[in-house]
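Per your request, structure below.
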């Protein structure tokens, strides 16, 4: 069951202004019906919903449901504003922001830099085809390396995690397509980006995120799950409180600015959240951000999303000045938050 409804989220002095939905041109009724729907459908296993508009939190709900932290056994959790939640592969979108910061600092040469220029220790793996792989190809998941993301335990992710040297494992994959030619979802690409950030900044990705991103947003309570070798899992290890996840969305909505301070270069945010290639189904893909559209007001509205396994969905809707975050744990119908709740409840709440 959700917490008792309140027209205005609680002010926690965490950097978020709060307002009622009506104060930000939203109708409460569709939002309340969403809460009621989820309370009557515990099998949906949605744990938290945050809606922000015009820079203020306007709707915040938490539920009790089954969840899992890393490889620990599942447990029933009563979620609230202080509870961290796995964001899984939405972590990749945060890593993309860190790459933008590192590029701005001059630590990374830019998207066109060859990947192997950062891995001289693996020179024995170089081929003419692999030498064409750039950071842009890692960011857009078009590196062309043979990779099977799903179907554990034989998937590439599990093998990477079990490898003594996960980065060698990734780079020694055979070439399946020319770099830049085809999208193939690949957590190994993000793992390489995370290791490049470590090599160039001198900090593992979790420490880099604290000093260069989270600290500047007032995000203090985080956790980053690690691979067996000890490195933070750049492809999916981040745990955040829902309000803090929404801050990442607000940062992107504001073109990298937070409370008047430029945290991520605006040009990088724009480049990251535009479509670079076609992804699966109707989705497009940017620099580790999903790009899509949803039905709205007789037409459609575009958004950029940070998506994670199990129904983690951070959705940024520039045209409506909105940010929406869903925390869930569902192995089936993982698109339920954006294809049902966003479409049938949140977008219909917009009044102007």
């Amino acid at each position: 069951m959700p917490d008792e409804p309140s027209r205005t989220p609680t002010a926690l002095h965490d950097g978020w202004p709060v307002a009622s939905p009506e104060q930000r041109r939203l109708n409460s009724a569709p939002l309340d019906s969403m809460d009621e729907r989820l309370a009557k459908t515990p099998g949906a296993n949605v744990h938290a919903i945050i809606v922000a508009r015009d820079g203020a939190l306007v709707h915040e709900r938490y539920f009790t449901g089954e969840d899992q932290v890393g490889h620990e056994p599942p447990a029933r959790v009563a979620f609230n504003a202080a509870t961290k939640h796995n964001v899984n592969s939405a972590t990749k979108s945060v890593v993309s922001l860190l790459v933008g910061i590192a590029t701005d600092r001059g630590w990374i040469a830019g998207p066109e830099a060859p990947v192997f220029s950062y891995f001289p220790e693996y020179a024995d793996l170089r081929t003419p085809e692999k030498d064409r792989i750039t950071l842009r190809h890692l960011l857009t998941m078009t590196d062309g390396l043979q990779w099977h993301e799903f179907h554990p335990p034989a998937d590439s992710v599990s093998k990477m995690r079990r490898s003594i040297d996960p980065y060698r494992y990734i780079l020694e994959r055979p070439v399946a397509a020319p770099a830049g030619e085809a999208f193939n979802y690949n957590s190994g690409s993000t793992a390489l980006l995370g290791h490049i950030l470590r090599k160039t900044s001198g900090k593992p990705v979790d420490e880099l995120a604290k000093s260069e991103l989270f600290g500047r947003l007032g995000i203090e309570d985080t956790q980053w799950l690690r691979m067996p070798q000890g490195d933070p899992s750049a492809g999916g290890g981040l745990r955040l409180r829902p309000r803090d996840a929404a801050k990442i969305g607000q940062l992107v909505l504001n073109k990298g600015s937070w409370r008047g301070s430029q945290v991520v270069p605006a040009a990088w945010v724009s480049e990251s959240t535009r479509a670079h290639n076609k992804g699966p189904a109707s989705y497009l893909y940017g620099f580790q951000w999903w790009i899509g559209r949803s039905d709205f007001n007789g037409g459609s509205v575009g958004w950029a999303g940070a998506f994670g396994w199990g129904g983690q969905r951070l959705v940024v809707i520039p045209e409506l000045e909105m940010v929406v975050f869903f925390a869930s744990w569902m192995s089936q119908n993982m698109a339920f938050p954006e294809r049902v709740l966003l479409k049938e409840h949140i977008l219909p709440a917009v009044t102007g």
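The first helix runs from residue 28 to 39.

Regards,
D.
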